[in-house]
């Protein structure tokens, strides 16, 4: 991954994000739902200008390795992913409403970690030697 130039900066914002359906139901065991989820996340990321470096949809959660503009907050990215995919998945798979009668597909929690090409020790050394 390369650093990118922006209007007032130079850098990179990449995150490993994990999203899980409410109650950790294994809704992506269904191959059609899994493919639809992958396609929906790709479409949302394209629409919003996020880059997907890797994605894996497993039975009960989704891993995403994303890069996005520094002007965009992580919480906004997660909101777009969860909200947009919920709406589209419910539309394509109305049977999901039986499990998620409250209207929320995704759990309120999430996992995220920023990812970079250097280790914490490298940064610490750079700062201490400056």
UniProtKB/TrEMBL annotation:
<dbReference type="GO" id="GO:0004803">
    <property type="term" value="F:transposase activity"/>
</dbReference>
<dbReference type="InterPro" id="IPR002686">
    <property type="entry name" value="Transposase_17"/>
</dbReference>
<feature type="domain" description="Transposase IS200-like">
    <location>
        <begin position="10"/>
        <end position="130"/>
    </location>
</feature>
<protein>
    <submittedName>
        <fullName>Mobile element protein</fullName>
    </submittedName>
</protein>
<dbReference type="InterPro" id="IPR036515">
    <property type="entry name" value="Transposase_17_sf"/>
</dbReference>
<dbReference type="GO" id="GO:0003677">
    <property type="term" value="F:DNA binding"/>
</dbReference>
<dbReference type="Pfam" id="PF01797">
    <property type="entry name" value="Y1_Tnp"/>
</dbReference>
<dbReference type="GO" id="GO:0006313">
    <property type="term" value="P:DNA transposition"/>
</dbReference>
């Amino acid at each position: 991954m390369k650093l990118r130039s922006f209007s007032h900066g130079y850098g990179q914002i990449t995150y490993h994000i994990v999203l899980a359906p409410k109650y950790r139901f294994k809704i992506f065991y269904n191959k059609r739902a899994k493919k639809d989820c992958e396609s929906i996340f790709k479409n949302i990321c394209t629409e919003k200008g996020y880059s997907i470096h890797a994605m894996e949809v497993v039975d009960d959660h989704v891993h995403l390795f994303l890069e996005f503009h520094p002007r965009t907050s992580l919480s906004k990215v997660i909101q777009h992913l969860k909200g947009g995919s919920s709406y589209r998945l419910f539309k394509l798979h109305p049977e999901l409403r039986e499990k998620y009668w409250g209207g929320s597909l995704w759990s309120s929690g999430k996992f995220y970690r920023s990812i970079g090409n250097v280790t914490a020790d490298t940064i610490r050394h750079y700062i201490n030697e400056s």
